[in-house]
Structures are given as structure tokens and as C-alpha cells.
Amino acid sequence: MKDRLGFPRAARFLRLALFFFGAASLPGAAAALPFWLTLPEQASTYAGEIDGMFHLIMWITGIIFVIVEALLLFFVLRYRHREGRVAKYTHGNNRVEVIWTIVPALICVLLALLSRRMWTEIKENMPHDATEIHVQGEQFAWNIRYPGADGKFDTPDDILTLNQLHFPVGKPVVVTLSSKDVIHSFFLPEFRVKQDLVPGMKTRVWFEANRVGHWEIACAELCGLGHYRMKGFVTVDTPEDFQKWLAEQAAALAAEQKQASTAAPAPAEVPAALPPESKGGSS
Amino acid sequence: MSTVALPREVPHVEVHPAPTSFWRKYIFSVDHKMIGRQYLFYALFMLIIGGLLAMLVRWQLAWPGRPIAFMGKIAPEGMPGGQMLPEFYNSLFTMHATIMIFFAIMPILIGAFGNFVIPIQIGARDMAFPRLNLMSFWVAVPAAVLIIWSFFVTGGAAQAGWTSYAPLSAIQPRGQTLWLLSLLVLGLSSLLTAVNFITTVINMRAPGMTFFRMPLTCWALFITAILLLLALPVLSAALIMLLFDRVLGTTFFLPAGMVVSGQPWPNAGGGQVLLWQHLFWFFGHPEVYIMILPAMGITSEVLPVFARKPIFGYRAMAYSIMGIAGLGFIVWGHHMFQSGMNPILGTSFMISTMVIAVPSAIKTFNWLGTVWGGDVHLTTPMLNALSFVSMFIIGGLSGIFMASTPVDIFIHDTYFIVGHIHYVLFGGSLFGAFAGLYFWYPKMFGRMMNETWGRIHWAITFITFNCVFFPMHFLGMRGMQRRIYDYTQYTHLKGLQPMNQFMTISLFVLGAGQIILIVNFFLSMRRGKVAGANPWHANTLEWQTSSPPPHENFTHGIPTIYRGPYEYSAPGYASDYWPQSEPPAGPAPIKAHG
User: Fold this and answer.
1) Taking the alpha carbons of A98, A101, A103, A109 in that order, is the dihedral positive or negative?
2) pLDDT digits over A161-213, tens only?
3) Which residues of B touch A91 (CB under 8 A)?
4) Residue of B nearest to A227 (CA)
5) Which of B408, B429, B558, B593 is deepest in the core (most CB within 10 A)?
6) pTM of the predicted model, to two decimals?
7) Separation CA B143–CA B147 (nearest Å)
């Protein structure tokens, strides 16, 4: 038994099911769309620029998408088989070939030029006079190191934290990244920052916060079974609060060192990362 | 018994008698048509496994940590009590991608359609090296056995992602070694196939079958074979180096000072971590085109047949395939923008990447031009080919986002990339494969697949495919990383759970929809309408012989070719199709392409 469109009756049920599936999901998706289509908060100075580029590409590709898909659909419906229709006999047209080669090429070159300028600014030119921080990744934690009072790294007064990244607002930060074991990726979504940490190499990344607040560091490169919980915490302070926090950390470190030197002659231990678990349960 | 197919100058007699024993005919066959069908079953089997793995991955993403009771019995080590462990999750997505890319999509497009179609379409009795072809398939089988076996070794299957970035892949449990061995073996199989395809296309074309009278499927598969030949050895080299790092104590990818779990790694020093990425992606980017070019070829074949119209811009299509192939070798660095590679190098890779968008755009516009003004028959192969075009548009355009280096900073390694790759590999390659399957099924098995159920399968697949994969772009825009076992750990990702649940439910519907294809596939072999030689009224040579074609393909000997492959609706010719091998009669013009 077949219905009007040539579908057998058994297929009607499926068509109905599909219809309800679509009808149920579309309004839900539409209601959520304003949320889904937005990028996260812009907490760094260049986040706006990157998003601007994202939106420019979204507009360009969006317009191309709508035009091309609409044309495809229109052609399919307009030239659908009817009795007696004869297809146009043509092997193409060199002029349109040239046009639709050159136009996409120009758009792509334009996007590449705009991107190049921004890329140079973000990844190639490191700012001077920045807050310097070293971050070393390991399975599955972030070891964060500040130079301490002497302004130099790898000296006894270095301030070390585990998974706690603090920096001041309104001043560039340069983070030097390294890894103990495997590749990790330092991802601050709200700052539009991502840079891999590569064992055997040092990589650098800079950014400048434009607001105070609390966010999270995510690991964006698969680094083992605990990859999903390799999370850190970002606190952006006012410059005063940041100095206060540094002083607190330095004092705590000094107290710890003193205690260690009186209790045992062994040198102060660098706070070790949590040992990687052999079996991780779900949260 | 010698089984080398003879060059075209030889007069057409049946050179070798058809094999009669079961083993020679069905198992260790040297007939390209049987090998093609063997690859088809192989690929469909692996496609099912890859799909089931994807469902487990998506289950975890929709309901992190919720147990699946029966899985506790099937995989007690990875899912004790049905609850998935993070390392098992890592295995699942690693194996899903590996199986889909190397064991499903490549075998179905290259192994199945390439083997079945190339010799008949160019008018040859078989491949240039039939026994090498036999070897290709039977080398691919142990590779599949190895990759499935790896699930059962201590520590489970490989967990370092399909890209297996060193040094993580160097310090993983044993499953990774099997992964490496499996891909090495499979790489050998693909190399043999590539040599065979290239030789066949260059040497075995029938009289009159010039390069620019070749169907675009043959063009695409020919160029794909060249890509395989040039790119695969680089992957094999990298795989061997990583294998040595794991089992022989070399340090190609292990830098000095590596400390794993508080212990200095025993063999570390002098290695270069980024070397793996350069080698892998030097292969990996051409690999993307290895998987899409054959699907583009199939689409270029199906559109003219069902639009009853010559392909728009035949030469532009052939040249753009070559352009994509050439440029495909100089864009690999765009996978490494955030890897620590010098950012100046990033800029040059961005420019080459932007340029490679152009030939893809040319192809898309030419497909549009082919449909324009046609007489469009919306059969199942046509619906799938049109889906290929429309989904490839999305996959192509979303690629521009990550080609732009600053935008890539944010979306790199997020679900935006996962969305992009699935629009290209599922929306592209797999819809292309479906189009090819429905199109050539009658030629392969002599019977038609059920058209109604084919359309229902297409409709379910098309709708649910978009429900599963389009939202991935949104997840990426919210910053959700790929390859993450439990995103609800992060405050900014918690709100994404309803979207993930919607996607997972859609995937279950998508998966269930494939049962229709499987049932249709097997039932039609017995019960389908008898196809006849040329059910689609198509021009290319495979349709000018019986279905399935006889031993050595052509009953009346090697045909002579008089015109291009897409002469549909030619004015002044009685029928709306004009087979390539039809001798010119009367005053009708013979038109060359261009």
C-alpha cells in the first residue's frame, strides 16, 4: 500500500516520528540559540579583536552558506524531473570558472591578511614590562611559579603555587610554559589564550586582563587519563590585591622553610603535584 | 596460472578461465570485482564497530558517570559495574577515530569503490597487478584483527587519540604498540593498492580512453592513489620511530629531563616532541584529502547521471582535484598553530591553507552548475550526493575559522574542530560513500536496492546527522575541549549538558536508522528488482556490460571509447544518454570536453 508520495504505509510511522522529533527539538534549539551563538566573556584586551575576526568570518561564511545552499535547493526543486523536461546541454563556461576562482581567492587573501596582523600582535611580539610567570604542566596539575622579591626565577625565594594563577588587571602578563612529562595545553577560554606546553621546549604567551574576577584554566591537549580534571583557577586582582596576595604567599613560604629547616635538615620541598592516580573514578 | 591482466593491444579473448573453486572465487580471489566487494563488507563491518564506539563516547558526554549495566559484563575492565573509567573513555574516542578513518572510510571509498569501479570504467579486464590486489586485501585483514585485538590486551586499547601525539603515545600501555603495528600493516596494504591504481590508470585504459575522457571518479581515485603513495611512507617512518621509542629504547620523540609520575623516564634525551606532529600531519593532511577526493569523484559521477546533464566544467573539476592534491602537501602546519611551532611559520601555513579553500570552492560551484538547468531525478544516490554537496559546504566553510590563526587560538582543540571534521568526514565522505553504495549496488550485486527504504534511510541520516554534529560548533564556541571525559568539572561548561544530551539522543536515532541500510543491503541481494545492465541510463563503461559484469568485465571484449563520460541530453541524439563506447553513427557531433 502506498500513499501520495509513493511511500509505503509502514514508512508513514517513520515520517511521523521524524516530524515530531523535529517539532520537539526545533523550538528548544531556537530558544537556546542566543546563548549557543555567543562566545564566552571577553576578559582580556585582545579577546574582543579575536571575536571580531570570528564574527567577520561568521558573517562572510554565513552569507556564502545561505546563498549557496539556497541556490542548491532552488535548482533541485526548480529543475525537478517532470515529463518532457529536457536538460540544458552545456559543458560549462570559462568566464564563470574564472569568476568563481578569483572571488573566493580574494576573500581568502583578505582574511589571511587581517589574521596575519592580529597573529603577529598576539603571538610574535611579547610586551616588555610585563608580570612574568612560569607555568609548568605535569600529569595532571599546573605548577605556577612567581619570581619572588628578587625578581629572578629559580632562586630560593620563588613563590610556588599549585593550580592557583593570580595576576593583576590592566598590566600585560607573560607566561613561560614548560612541561615535565607530556604535552599539555594552557587554555584560558575567557582570555582567548591557548598555548601548548611542550616537554623539552619553552613556549611563551602574553595577555592582559581587562577586568577582575575568577575563572578557570583548562587543559586543552589530551594528556592522559586525568586530562579532564587538569583544572586550575585564575584570579585577576587589582594591582594592590595582587601585591598583597604575593606578600602572603611569600610569608607562608618563609614560614614553611623555617619550619622545615628547624624540623629536619632536609631542604624545603617544592610542593609536589598530586600523584597521578592509576584508576580514576568518575566525579 | 598466470593472472596478469593483459595490455589493451591484445585482441579480446577470455585470457584466463574464470575460477570455479569456492576458495579461488570468493576468498582468495584475484578478480577486482570480488576484492572490491570484500572490501565493502570489511568496511561496513568496521563502520558498525566504529559507530558503536561513538555511541559509548556520546553516552558518557550526555550523562557523565551514569553506568550502563550490560557494558559492565562486556568490558569489565574498562567499565566496572557499567561505569566508564576515564582511560577507557580515552580508548573509545581513539579507537572510534582510528577505525572510522583507516578501517571504514578509506576501505569503502578506495578499497571497495576504487577496486570495483576503476578497471571497468577505464575499460580494462582487471587491475594491472591482480595478485598484488589480492595481497592488498589480505594484508588489510590482519591489520583489522590487530586493532580489534588491542582492546583485549592489558591496559586496553590505545588511548592517545588517533593523532597519538608523542610523548604521551610513547608512555602509554601496550595497546598503543598494537595500534602502531596495525597501522604499519595497513599502511603496507594501502601502498600496494596505490601502486596498483596508478599503474592501472596509466597503462590499462581502453583504446580512445584519453585522460580527459576518464570519468571523474577515476580521476579522483587516481590522484588519491598518488597522494597515498607520497604521504603514507612518511607516516610509516613516524610509526616505526615511535615503535622504536616504545620497544627498543630509542629517543626520537623523548626530550631530556622527562619526569613521569615523579620518576625520571628511563630512555629520554635528545628527542624532539614536535617532530612527531610534523611527520604525522605531513601525512595527516593529505590523508584528509585521501578521504574526501574519492567521495568528490563519486558525487561528480552521480550528479550528471541524475541531472541528465554533462558535468559543469569537466576540466576545471579535474584540475581542481590536482590543485587540492598539490596544495595538500604544504598545509600540514595548520594543525600546529598553538603547538609551539614558530608563529612566523604559522603565518605561511595560514596563507597556504586559505589558498586550498579555492579549488574546493571551484568544485562546489561546478556541482551547482551541474544541477542548474538539469532534469533532476531525486533517487537515493542523488539525494546522498546532493547531501554530500550541501554538507561539504558546511565542512568547508567551518574550516576557514580555524585557518585564521588568531581565531584558531580559541577554537583549536575544542568541539568546533570535532564538528568541522565530522562535517567533512561524515557529511562529506560518508554521504559520498552512501551515494556510491546505492549507485553501484545494482552493478555489484545485479539487483536494485529498495528505493523507498533507501530514501527513508537517507532522510533519517540527513536530519539526525545535523542534529548530532551541528551543535558541536556551539559547544566549541563555548570553549568545550575535545577528548574530555567529564566537562562538567568546569564551571563554564556545566550548562552544556542539555545540548550534549540532545546530540546523544540524536545519535541513537542516527545509529538505529542505519539498521534500515543494513537490512536493505542484505535483503536486496535476494529480493531486489533485477537491475539489468544499465538501470540508471548512464554513459560510463561499467553500465555497458552486464550486472554484475562477467569474468574479465566485457562480454564482447575491450570496448573502444568515442567520447567523454558525461554526454547527457546531447542535442541531435535520439536518447538522453550517449554511452562512451557507442560508435558514432550519422551526423551527430562528437564533442570533446573543454
Assistant:
1) negative
2) 999 999 999 999 999 999 999 999 999 999 999 999 999 999 999 999 999 99
3) 310-314, 591, 593-594
4) B484
5) B429
6) 0.91
7) 6
